[in-house]
Structure prediction request, 896 residues.
Amino acid sequence: MRLNFLPTLFLLIAYSLCVADDRPIISDTRRARVEAQFKYQRAIAEHRSSELFGVMNDTLTQAEKDALTYLYAYMPLQDMADYDGEFFLRAVKATLKARSEMPWGETITDDVFLAFVLPIRVNNENLDEARPELFATLKDRVKGLSMEKAILEVNHWCHEKVTYRGTDGRTSGPLSTIRTSWGRCGEETVLVVAALRAVGIPARQLYTPRWAHVDDNHAWVEAWVDGNWHFLGACEPEPMLDMAWFHEPARRAMMVHTKAYGGFQNDSFKVKSDRYHDELQVLSTYAPASERRVSVVDVANRPVSGALVEFGLYNYAEFFPLSSPLTDSKGQALLPTGKGDLRIWASKDNLTGSAILNADVDEIVIKIAPFNTEERIEFLDINPPIEPMPVIYEVSKEAREANRIRLAREDRIREAYMATFANEASCRALASELELNSAELWDVLYSSQGNHAQIRKFLQTVPAEQLHWAMAMLGVISEKDLRDTPASVLLDHLELAFEGFHGLVDADEMSHGEMERFIPYILSPRIHNELLTPWRSGLRGIFGDTQMDAFKRNPQLVVDWVRENIKIDDVANWLHVPMRPLGVAKLKVADQLGRDILFVALCRTAGIPARLEIGTLAPQFFQSNWKTVNWSGQPSAAVQTATIKITGHLETKPVYFSHFALARYSGGRYQTLDYEGMPWEFFEAGLALEPGSYCLTTGNRQDDGSVLIRMAYFGLKANESRVVPMVMRPSKPAPAPLGVIETNVSLPSIAKARFGSRWVEGRPQNLASLSNDKGLILAWIGNGDEPTRHALLDLEQLREPIEKWGGGLVLVVQELPNGDVTYLDKIGNMATQTQLLLDNNAQILKQILEKTARQPSDQLPVIMGVSRDGNVIYYSEGYKIGVGEQVLKAIRRMEK
Prediction:
C-alpha cells in the first residue's frame, strides 16, 4: 500500500526552514527541573553521548533546543540505547512545524504540548519515522477543519489503514501497523495518538489494565479540544466524539489510567509518579469511584510503614495489581477505584497478609504475619461493579448512516491493499522455484501479511544449502516477526548463526537433543519480546571472533562480562520497553530484563544454547545441562527442579490465563508464571519447577461478571514429583429463564444476488426448524457499527464449538443491506449452520422482548440464547467484551 509519504530528503530540507514561533517552550518555573533531569540522563548515556547529543551542537532554534532537552530528559533507556539524535531532531522539527502551521497550535498551552504532543513515544511500541511522515500525509487532510472535525478525520484515515485483530504482546510501531493493516487495541491506539500528535493535536492513550467483569483489557484514545479531553475508539470512527462501544464496559471499570511524559500537574490522582512520568487515574470521567484506604498493622496492631500494598483485581486467573504503593508513616496506602471487589495483599520482608475489600467498603485493616507455608485451599467470590443502565446517544439516523457508508468505503480501501498480499498461487510458484514444501511456505507467507516481499526476498537470497535452516528459523520466530522484520535482519541471523561452529552445521550429524537446542536456542533471533535487529553482526563487531570463541569454551565468561559491564537501572526504563541486545551492549545500562536479553544474545552469537526460561524468564545456558545464571558472582549452577502434573476434567480444554494460572511465591508476593499460549497437554505432561511455594488459581466467570475462585496453595521440594488437580468451582444455579418465546415463526433469508452487489430476499426460514431440536443463538445485528463488528468476531471464533453443538446460529438484520457490506463477509468464516435473516423494522424482536418483559432497545447487537423449548436463557444488548465466552456457556447449558 502506497502511503504517499514525502521522501525523507525533502522533509529534512522543508523542516530546516525557520518556524514562525521560536519562543522557549519550557516555562521558567520548570526549566531548572527539566535541565537537571537532562543532565542526569546525559550521565546515564555517557557511552552513547555523541550519537545522542551531538545534534545539540548544531545550529538550532530555541524551541528545537527546548524540545530536544525535554525529550532526552524523560525518555526511557531503550530510546537512548537504540536511536540517535538525528532521529529525534527530525521528529522535533516536524512537531514544531505542525504547531506553527495548524490553527489550533496557538491554543495549546506549553505544559499540554510537552506532555501530550511533543513525545514521540505513546507507550511501549517500537519507534519509527511516523512523526514526520504522518505530518506530511495528514496536514492537507485536516486543512480548514475545526479541531474536533480534524480528530474525527484523522481517526477515519487510521481506520482506512488499520482494523482490529488480536495479536501478541509486542507493540508494533505506527508504520509497521499500517503495513500489516491490522493490530490489537494497543497498536490501534498508538497509531491514532501518533497521527493526532503529528498534526499538533494533544492526544493520549487510556488504558484499563484489566476489566472487572470479563477476562480482558482495553485501550482507547482521548484527544484534547479547547481545554477538555474527549474519548474515541482508535480506528473505530463514530459520528461524533465521546461515543464508542467501550463506553458501557468503561462505566464498570475499576481503573482507567494514562501516562504523562515528564509529568503533568492537574487534579488527577497519581497512581505512580517518578522522575520520568506521572501515571494518572482518570476513572471518575467514566465510572463511579471512591477512595479505598488500606491500613497495615503488625501482630501487635502497630502501624507498619514501608509495606507493599497490592490492590488486586481478579482477571486472567490472577489478582492483577492495579497499584502497588508503599504505606506511609501511618501505615496507610490509598487508591481511588471503582465499586467492585478487590483482594488486598500486603507484605514487608517475609511478613504477609491479605483480605477481600468488598465493593461497599472503602477502608480495611490488614494484619501481616510470618508467611503462611501451610498447604490449603481458599474459596473466594469476587463481584464486579454493578452494570448501569446504558447511555443513549443522541445521534440522528442520517448521521449514523453517513458514517456507516464511509466506514464501508474505508473497509474497501483497506481490503484492496490487503489483496496485494501473497496469495496461494504465488506461493506455489515460489515453492516450486526454491523446491520448498508449498504448505509450509504458505503458512509463513500468509502470516507475513504486508511484509511478504521481505520474506520472499530473504528466501530467494539464501543459498540453496541453507534453505532448510531458513525455513526452520522462520518457523520459530513469532507471526509478528514475520510481519515486520526486514530481509536484511533475517539474513544477518541466518548467516552468522553458524559462526560459533566455524561453518554450516549439517543437520544429519546432529543428535535429536542437539537439534532441539540448536533451532530455538541458537538459530532463533527471538529471545523475549524485543524488536528483532541484526544483533549477531553487531555483537561480533564489538567483541571479535577471538573473544566469542573464548565465550563458547567457557560460558561463565559471558556471565562475568555482563555482570561487570552492564549497570542495572530498573527505574530509567519506566515504560518497560523490551531493550534490544546491541543497544544494551553500547549503552551499558539496562533494566534486569534488558541485561538478561543481552546475555542470551551473546551466548547464541558465540554458539552457546541459551534462553529465558519459560514461566520465570530466568536466564539460562546449556553446558552439559541447563544452568541458571547467578548474577551475584557465584558460578552458575545446574537447575534444581521439582515436577508437577496438572490434571483436570472440563467440557473444553482448560486455557492458561483464562481458566487457570500458576504462581510462585517470591519477594513477598505470589508472582504468576508466564505460560501464555501453552497448550493443556504441556501441563498434563509435567512441568519442571524450582522448589518453593506455589498457588494454583482457577476461576469460573459467571454471566453477571462475578467469578468463583479456588486457590490451592502447595509447596515443592527439590526432585519431588506430584500431581496437582485443577478444579473449577461449579457455576451458580442457573437463573430462571428470562421468558418463553414462540420459535415457530418464519423470517425471510437474504443473500447477495448472484451478479452485482445487490441483496435480495430468499425463501422464509422457520426458527424452530433451524434449532435442529438443540437450541438457537439469535443475534440482531447492526448496520456495520463497531459493536456489531466486535460481536461478529466473537461469534466467528466460536465456529468449532457451535458446529459441534449443532443448534442454530441466526443473524438477523432489520433492513436489506445496500451494496457491498464488508462486515457481512464474516459470515463465511462462521459455523456452517449460520443463517442470515431479515426482520423488517425488528417486528419479531419487539414481540420477543414483550414476552421477556424487556423494553425495545436500540442498543445492537441483541444476542439471545434460546433453548429447544423456547426458554430465553441468555440475553445481551450492545457489545459486551467477552460475549463469546458467555454465548459458549449458554450453549453448554443447552447441551445438558
Summary: Residues 1-20 have pLDDT under 50 and may be disordered.
